[in-house]
Design brief:
The structure holds three protein chains of three kinds. Chain A is an all-alpha fold. Chain A has five helices and no strands. In chain A, helix 1 runs antiparallel to helix 4, helix 2 runs antiparallel to helix 3 and helix 4 packs antiparallel against helix 5. Classes of the chains: A mainly alpha, B alpha+beta, C mainly alpha.
Chain lengths: 175, 273, 573
């Protein structure tokens, strides 16, 4: 998983590299004021993802603990956050589209959609993995020896949360 | 087979690349030929050593009754030192030398753009699949009313005069290539790239495109004519008179050449590059 | 499977959706060979056009190019060389080296039962297969496949460039999928080597083959995602009309940058060529040792040099872009760093010669191919010097000299090395020997034409012929090259014909070949300690490693000139 994360890091790093080059060379670029709806949506999403990671961490902690059914509960919590994130992203894209900002409208629009889209696709994949784990832990209690898949999927989930934080900062915060 | 045999003889007599490049008529092209010839020499020596070693080893050490291999791991200090020293020898005999030659040539010639009153400036706009060529006209400024546009694919320059070219392509990446001058430079959309050169002899030389640019890439053929300074001035004057009807820079936009390219494609000369 | 016994497998789980590294390796072998032949056919067509420009292709012309009466037209020509390059690099060499040999050999050579992630391994193959299906499909689009060169520079490779149809989009999509498959494989190989070596096998007891494949896998894991990002952006250009890489008068939004693509492409592209050659360096180092009956000379130094080159490969990409107008300082930096690679390359090359020195050379088929790699890589490596130097590159950039150079390092070194590997491991993969006489004929039939074709190609490049030309002879300065180009084509067709000998050998040997003994080469590495067919799980008992991988002609051994890695030195003497 570490190597896989290294590979994924390179993927998102390249996207970030491209974004940086294009932004530095550009004469104008969208910036979002603190009161703009997209900014609020993105900020909410950041908090939601952070919460999802917290839930996941609690799930891992609960393995082998006094309330093993919590593992399953926290995983569903993560999934719920993920679903809200997805819905909120979609709403964000709709908001932008409503303001006339679409994928091919301008370089900065293309970059924003491409980066958030790339991230969202990976979140979907991660949610599938978490969903599978949630089903697995619903029927049986997993032991400490069996928690490796749980931990590894967790690394990927936290990785995506971190990537989102970076993207959020670069796209929505920095002017 | 006959050609093959001829090639081998040629090869032995005239260096390892047995067909000569087009004759170089530029001021600084000899530098490139020189670094290539130096590389040729050292490469040939090292390759000869390798081939002779291989042949010798294969013959001398081939498996046969009574012949045994010697158990040598090659990890004694002497061997490591020897191979590393040889590695550095290779580096200093070829790499360091050609690097020094290249640095010197880049500094003295290729990146040392001429400045001065007699420099001829040309703007070139490559497109799919032709070369558009533009001169500044009597006022000395580009993108003004008196610019002179050469017929497509026909570039003229005076002999023994430095020429600086700036390029910005219309559509995709092209590369301006004149083999007789050893010049090659990319033209990338969104950028202005530049290079300079000087002709030592007059004549007519071919221009080609050296970056894949579509189905017509192979036939992007242009001509560079090197005139005497008087003939060059006369040619420019003749063109200027033909194009005098255009009154205003804004009219250039409505003028089109045969392929439908609006003729106001020039840009103010970029002084920074 | 912790006890080495095979569990019951149906036809589907054994041959189709197998998770056994050996079967997956063989799947990659056939997959890569198919594409090697397809790409090779395309090369033959390119040579037809360069020799007999504008004339109908004989025999198969009408079948392939019905619409133009068997004549290759300029747009089709662009498609052919684009696909030739793309296929050879990504669908022939990559599956053969980082798919077939990596999969088959790594677990056996390090004493593991299988790869670390067998299911991921299976997904890797089938993702690769899917990518191949998409690529194949692109050939049958109405406007044909991609035509912007394997490098696919925008804006040409975007709708702005004027190439008709969806070939470019499918190209980018199939390449992205292929990249994902490669990354999956890389994760497996890197993890397996780190975590699953048998007791006693430290890093410096591993065969150099494993070093080569492992270093290539590390590069794959780090750099393929970079091109994947670039390809995804290119896909967006082609499908959704974004303009990340479009600038100048054809851009309708400002801010795009074609150079961004070139940087992203070559930051991946240069390590990619080392990904392609590192396994070969490892394999050749080992094979020279086996067939000289001597340890690989300077084993640790060679492994170290391979590591150094792996690291250096990441910082030299700019030498592909000298003519773009980059800043002089950057050009000088890239030139210096590129030339530095000469040092470790020369050192391990000398170690190859050192392995042969005072050996007892058995000139059997794998050895012939391995020796030829020494020769062709010498030429390929040395000719890189001309291109590393900024000034000589001004003249030679985008010329046939470059094509000759990279074919020497790729088509020659990698191909001959892959053949060496095939002849060597065939007995372990299929239990039969490849016919030695056909092997020798195949060798000479490949080696001689190969050299004539690509050496002369460099000659045409030096004489001024630039690349990707449908008809070079419209230029006066190239007309004198027509006889030589025609000669090159004939020798290229001979080269192609010689590969038929290999195909015949493969089929014949599989059907009627001589049964192979357990260790026909008296080789020391662990894969030769198990009998064919190798069971699922490889070893009845986990092997323990006592010696290095090249203990040949050790005077302490009596009665024979080798000892296996799993034998103790004192026990054998």
């Amino acid at each position: 998983m570490m190597i896989a994360l290294a590979s994924w890091s390179m993927l998102f790093a390249t996207a970030l590299f491209g974004y940086t080059v294009l932004r530095v060379q550009a004469t104008h670029w969208y910036s979002f004021g603190a009161g703009d709806r997209p900014f609020i949506q993105a900020t909410a999403n950041t908090l939601i993802l952070l919460l999802s990671s917290v839930f996941y961490k609690m799930a891992v902690r609960a393995v082998g603990g006094s309330r093993p059914e919590d593992v399953n509960r926290y995983l569903w919590g993560t999934l719920a956050c993920g679903a809200v994130f997805g819905a909120m992203q979609f709403w964000l894209w709709q908001t932008l589209a409503g303001e006339g900002i679409r994928l091919a409208t301008s370089i900065s629009a293309s970059s924003i959609f491409a980066m958030t889209g790339l991230h969202a696709v990976h979140v979907l994949g991660a949610m599938a993995a978490v969903f599978w784990l949630a089903l697995r832990t619903r029927r049986r209690i997993i032991t400490t020896e069996e928690k490796t898949p749980l931990v590894l999927v967790g690394w990927f989930w936290h990785f995506l949360t971190i990537i989102w934080c970076v993207f959020y900062t670069v796209i929505f915060v920095i002017h | 087979m006959g050609t093959l045999f001829q090639s081998l003889i040629h090869s032995a007599l005239s260096g390892i690349w047995f067909i000569k490049p087009p004759q170089d008529v530029s001021l600084d092209g000899y530098r490139i030929d020189k670094v290539i010839h130096y590389t040729d020499t050292v490469v040939a020596i090292y390759m000869a050593v390798v081939v002779l070693s291989l042949v010798y080893f294969i013959v001398r050490y081939r498996a046969r009754p009574g012949h045994k291999a010697v158990y040598e791991r090659g990890d004694k200090k002497i061997y490591i030192v020897a191979t590393v020293v040889l590695g550095f020898t290779v580096f200093f005999s070829i790499d360091a030398v050609i690097e020094a030659m290249a640095f010197k040539d880049l500094k003295e010639a290729f990146w040392n753009f001429p400045k001065g009153a007699n420099v001829v400036r040309v703007e070139v706009m490559p497109q799919q699949f032709a070369w558009n060529i533009r001169y500044a006209g009597p006022d000395g400024y580009f993108a003004t009313d008196d610019d002179i546009i050469a017929p497509q694919n026909q570039m003229h320059i005076p002999v023994d005069t430095p020429v600086v070219v700036q390029m910005a392509p219309m559509d995709v990446i092209h590369t301006f290539y004149i083999p007789h001058f050893r010049i090659k430079q990319d033209a990338t959309p969104g950028m202005i790239t530049s290079f300079w050169f000087q002709a030592k002899e007059s004549g007519k030389f071919e221009i080609a495109c050296a970056e894949l640019c579509g189905n017509g890439h192979y036939r992007m053929r242009g001509f560079l004519t090197v005139d005497s300074p008087e003939d060059f001035r006369a040619w420019l004057e003749e063109l200027r008179q033909e194009q005098e009807e255009t009154d205003d820079w804004s009219d250039w936009g409505e003028e089109e050449d045969d392929s439908g390219v609006p003729q106001d494609w020039g840009w103010p000369w970029n002084k920074k590059i | 499977m912790s006890d080495g016994t095979a569990h019951k497998q149906s036809f589907i789980t054994k041959y189709i959706f197998s998770t056994d590294h050996k079967m997956i390796g063989i799947q990659f072998l056939w997959f890569g060979t198919f594409w090697l032949l397809w790409g090779g056919l395309q090369a033959m067509l390119i040579r037809w056009q360069l020799a007999y420009s504008g004339q109908p292709v004989p025999i198969i012309g009408k079948l392939l190019f019905g619409a133009s009466d068997g004549i290759i037209t300029p747009d089709i020509y662009n498609q052919i060389f684009t696909m030739h390059g793309t296929i050879m690099i990504f669908w022939a060499v990559t599956p053969l080296l980082s798919g077939a040999f990596a999969n088959f050999v790594i677990p056996l050579q390090i004493g593991a039962r299988d790869m670390a992630f067998p299911v991921l391994n299976m997904f890797s193959f089938w993702t690769f297969f899917l990518s191949g299906v998409i690529l194949l499909a692109s050939h049958f689009l109405p406007a044909g496949p991609a035509a912007a060169g394997w490098t696919s520079y925008p804006p040409l490779s975007t709708p702005v460039g004027g190439i008709a149809g969806h070939g470019q989009a499918l190209w980018a999509l199939s390449l992205t999928l292929m990249g994902i498959a490669v990354i999956m494989g890389a994760i497996n190989y890197v993890t397996t080597v780190i975590r699953m070596r048998a007791p006693g096998m430290g890093y410096f007891q591993m065969p150099l083959t494993v070093w080569g494949i492992w270093l290539a896998a590390i590069l794959n894991a780090v750099f393929v995602p970079i091109i994947a990002a670039g390809l995804i952006f290119l896909l967006l250009e082609n499908v959704f009309g974004t303009q990340f890489f479009i600038a100048g008068s054809k851009a309708t939004v400002e801010g795009g940058d074609p150079l961004l693509y070139q940087h992203v492409f070559w930051i991946f592209g240069h390590p990619e060529v080392y990904i392609l050659i590192l396994p070969i360096w490892g394999i050749v180092s080992d094979l020279l040792s086996v067939f000289s009956r001597k340890p690989a000379f300077g084993y640790r130094v060679t492994a170290t040099c391979m590591c150094i080159i792996t690291c250096l490969s990441a910082i030299v990409w700019g030498h592909h872009m000298y003519t773009t107008g980059m800043s002089p300082l950057l050009g000088k930096a890239f030139m210096f760093l590129t030339l530095l690679i000469s040092i470790p390359s020369s050192v391990f090359f000398l170690n190859w010669l050192g392995t042969l020195w005072k050996g007892s050379l058995q000139l059997r088929a794998p050895m012939l191919f391995a020796l030829s790699v020494v020769f062709v890589f010498g030429i390929g490596g040395l000719t890189g010097l001309y291109l590393a130097t900024v000034t000589s590159d001004i003249y030679l950039h985008d010329s046939m000299f470059v094509v000759g150079h990279f074919h020497y390092t790729l088509a020659a070194s990698v191909l001959m090395g892959s053949y060496a590997a095939l002849y060597f491991w065939f007995p372990k993969m299929f239990g039969k020997m490849l016919n030695p006489l056909l092997g020798k004929i195949h060798f000479w039939g490949t080696f001689i034409p190969l050299n004539i074709v690509f050496y002369n190609m460099m000659v045409t490049g030096y004489a001024g012929q630039h690349r990707r030309l449908y008809d070079p002879y419209i230029y006066e300065f190239l007309q004198n090259l027509k006889p030589l180009n025609t000669q090159i084509s004939w020798w290229a067709w001979l080269l192609g014909a010689a590969q038929v000998v290999l195909v015949v050998n493969l089929i014949w040997s599989l059907m009627k070949g001589k049964k192979a003994e357990r260790n026909p080469w008296n080789a020391a590495t662990i894969e030769w300690t198990v009998d064919y067919p190798i069971p699922h799980g490889n070893f009845a008992q986990m092997p323990t490693v006592y010696t290095g991988p090249h203990e040949y002609s050790n005077p302490a051994i009596q009665g024979r000139d080798w000892i296996s890695q799993t034998e103790k030195l004192t026990a054998a003497s």
